[in-house]
């Protein structure tokens, strides 16, 4: 199966050397290497130096966007289903310094606060067979980067790249997926995307239904005279009979039950305000919904619950295939590493789906202690890590890599010391 995946992208590399290095890079991402950067992956592959891995990400001739297209096609081919949903969200990559493309002090949910970081906007595809990341865009802040030509040139940001908001980047990815022939009827995302009218208009124009989270202060029109009221105020006036307890899908600890209510906010029955209430804490969440045709409440609840799939993708991609382990600054290198990590995650997800036994659903059947759970992405990655381990490395090779790393670190330390000594004192 790995050979089949590699055959999909082999034609994207014009020469045999980068093609072989890409194969070794993917092997490394799937291995048990603790830190999946070029140094460690080169050592894992048996290379004497990290040069081939670094050239693969920086100067080798191949298009990360073309491989991204292959990843997207592979995911939809293997995991596609009539219940598929497109999900947009962002994740942060904590960084030091100011040279990495797109880095600045900004809020990131990864840290839960403002940190020096890069932010990537991602598109995931989720169905009953599994979920995987299928597209990515690096967010480029307007003032710190888009208007700084010298900084752009230093990080290799192409001239044609202009400022775009995160919802605009999400819209471009959705349009690219639809133009590529992805068959889906739904899209979802959190408040950062639900609050953007441009993204909602794009989805409606493409006849894609959406369930997008919005703030409690969002104003909607619900009565005959079309007076706009806050979403939380509308929820306060709902009778007890308006609430229905339904599962938003299975979580790690079983079905996720919430109380749900919906209010029609359009004259044609295609627009609704969906409200979720935590039965324990009473906390409310709100969603703007639009559908090309009428659908039941249960379908909106299903799509709303699917949004969490992209969080699971981020967790698996960072924890299993090193999505955030890169040590690159260049625009091209970032997109190449992220794309190869997405391919590695998609491969693991397809393996997990392929290994899941096809048996009729029996929701009321009690679990048997003698039956293990289905193979998961972390478990498959662990098994692959053991299988892909190279033959025993000689002591001389281990020492050679240790010497190389320490020499490189000594050079970096001297450079840092020299810069600090030459800097004017602030005392």
Describe the protein in words.
This protein is α+β, with helices and mostly antiparallel strands. It has a domain of 116 residues. It contains 16 helices and twelve strands. The strands form two sheets. Strands 1, 2, 3, 4, 5, 6, 9, 10, 11 and 12 form a ten-stranded mixed β-sheet that branches. A two-stranded antiparallel sheet has the order 7-8. α5 packs parallel to α14 and α8 packs parallel to α10. It is globular and about 80 Å long.
Quickly list its features:
single chain, 427 residues, alpha+beta, 10-stranded mixed β-sheet, 16 helices, 43% helix, 21% strand, globular, IS701-like_DDE_dom, RNaseH-like_sf, IS701 family transposase, IS701-like
Short description:
This is IS701 family transposase. This protein is of the alpha+beta class and 427 residues long.
- Total strands: 12
Helical segment tally?
16
**Helix/strand class:** alpha+beta
* Overall helicity: 40-55%
Q: What is the terminal separation in angstroms?
A: 61 Å
Give the CA-based shape: globular
Beta percentage is 15-25%
Low-confidence stretches: none
Global mean pLDDT: 89
What kind of sheet is the major sheet? 10 strands, mixed
Rg, Cα atoms, Å: 24 Å
Order of helical and strand elements: HHHHHEEEEHHHEHHEEEHEEEEHHHHH
Protein name: IS701 family transposase
InterPro entries: IS701-like, IS701-like_DDE_dom, RNaseH-like_sf
List the helices and strands and how they pair.
Elements: H1 2-9, H2 16-30, H3 38-45, H4 51-58, H5 64-79, E1 85-94, E2 104-108, E3 113-127, E4 130-138, H6 142-146, H7 149-154, H8 166-179, E5 186-189, H9 191-194, H10 197-205, E6 209-214, E7 219-221, E8 228-230, H11 231-236, E9 244-251, E10 254-264, E11 271-277, E12 284-290, H12 297-306, H13 309-320, H14 331-355, H15 377-387, H16 395-422
Parallel strand pairs: 1-5, 5-6
Antiparallel strand pairs: 1-3, 2-3, 3-4, 6-12, 7-8, 9-10, 10-11, 11-12
């Amino acid at each position: 199966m790995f050979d089949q995946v590699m055959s999909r992208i082999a034609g994207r590399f014009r020469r045999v050397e980068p093609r072989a290095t890409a194969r070794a890079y993917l092997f490394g991402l799937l291995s048990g290497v603790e830190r999946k950067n070029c140094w460690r992956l080169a050592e894992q592959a048996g290379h004497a130096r990290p040069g081939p891995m670094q050239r693969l990400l920086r100067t080798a001739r191949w298009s990360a966007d073309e491989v991204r297209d292959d990843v997207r096609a592979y995911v939809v081919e293997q995991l596609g289903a009539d219940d598929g949903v497109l999900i947009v969200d962002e994740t942060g990559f904590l960084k030091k310094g100011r040279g990495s493309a797109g880095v600045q002090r900004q809020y990131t949910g990864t840290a839960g606060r403002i940190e020096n970081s890069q932010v990537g906007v991602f598109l995931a595809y989720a169905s009953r067979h599994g979920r995987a990341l299928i597209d990515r865009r690096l967010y480029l802040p307007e003032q710190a980067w888009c208007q700084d030509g010298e900084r752009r040139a230093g990080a290799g940001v192409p001239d044609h790249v202009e400022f775009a908001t995160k919802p605009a980047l999400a819209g471009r990815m959705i349009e690219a997926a639809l133009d590529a022939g992805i068959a889906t009827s739904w899209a979802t995302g959190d408040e950062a995307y639900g609050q953007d009218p441009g993204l909602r208009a794009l989805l409606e124009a493409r006849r894609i239904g959406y369930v997008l989270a919005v703030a409690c202060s969002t104003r909607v029109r619900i009565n005959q005279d079309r007076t706009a009221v806050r979403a939380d105020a509308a929820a306060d006036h709902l009778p007890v009979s308006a609430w229905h307890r339904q599962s938003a899908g299975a979580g790690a600890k079983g079905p996720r039950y919430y109380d749900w209510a919906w209010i029609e906010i359009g004259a044609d029955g295609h627009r609704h305000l969906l409200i979720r209430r935590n039965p324990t804490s009473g906390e409310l969440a709100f969603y703007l919904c639009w559908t090309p045709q009428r659908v039941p409440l249960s379908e909106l609840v299903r799509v709303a619950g699917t949004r969490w799939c992209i969080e699971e993708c981020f967790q698996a991609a960072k924890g299993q295939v090193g999505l955030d382990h890169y040590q690159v600054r260049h625009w091209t290198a970032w997109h190449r590493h992220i794309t190869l990590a997405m391919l590695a995650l998609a491969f693991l997800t397809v393996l997990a789906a392929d290994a899941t036994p096809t048996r009729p659903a029996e929701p009321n059947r009690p679990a048997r202690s003698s039956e293990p759970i289905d193979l998961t992405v972390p478990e498959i990655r662990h098994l692959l890590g053991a299988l892909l381990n190279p033959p025993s490395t000689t002591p001389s090779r281990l020492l050679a890599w240790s010497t190389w790393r320490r020499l490189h670190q000594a050079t970096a330390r001297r450079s840092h010391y020299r810069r600090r000594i030459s800097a004017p004192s602030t005392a």
